[in-house]
Amino acid sequence: MKRLQKCRVRLTLAALMSMTASLSQATDLRSVVEKTIVSNPEVRFRFHEFRSSAEETGIGRAGYLPTVDVSYTSARENNKEPLVNYGPQVTSDFNRKGWSADLSQNLFQGFQTMNTVKQLEFGKRGKYYEFVDASEQLGLEATRTYLDVLRYRQLLDYAKESYGVHKGIYDQIEQKVKAGVGRRVDLEQAAGRLACPRPI
């Protein structure tokens, strides 16, 4: 009878685990995988790396565009110059302020800009494939987990059904033994089968 109680405890635990693992509403595999991928931090990290590399490609393309450098200067200067060799020095102080703007267009840098853009494009493509790989690996893992949950639920249903059948047989044999018609060995064998019903 101890085996029977252990089996009941196991079935109860399996049922509780099944209930906690079940979702509040019926969901299909596609929505489970999608939710898992969208909410995973590793996939988000890979996606943001891909977006970052796309922006870097835009920075590389800036080599084709003209550049404008604007600067403002403000200074005070002191000049001491002799009027003649070995003569008295003349000191002049003045303030300098000014703006300057330089516009330049790159004409040719030995294909540096073109090669930089190509390099950044390949880097972007690599980041994209890393993002896709992380998504697919997580999707595969989520699919396996989802299918395992379905399989274990089915096994639990089989175990419950098997337990019900064995319980009915055990009760019938127990009645026969109490009535003096059945053998005690048959009751012990039925109790053993009832202890751990397994699906075929």
Automatic annotation (TrEMBL):
Protein name: Outer membrane channel protein
Cellular component GO terms held in the UniProt record: cell outer membrane; efflux pump complex
Keywords: Cell outer membrane, Membrane, Signal, Transmembrane, Transmembrane beta strand, Transport
Family as reported in the entry's similarity comment: Belongs to the outer membrane factor (OMF) (TC 1.B.17) family.
Annotated organism of origin: Chromobacterium violaceum
Localization (cell): Cell outer membrane
Domain of life: Bacteria
Alphabetical list of Pfam families matching this protein: OEP
Molecular function via GO: efflux transmembrane transporter activity; porin activity
Signal peptide: 1-26
Matching Gene3D superfamilies: Outer membrane efflux proteins (OEP) (1.20.1600.10)
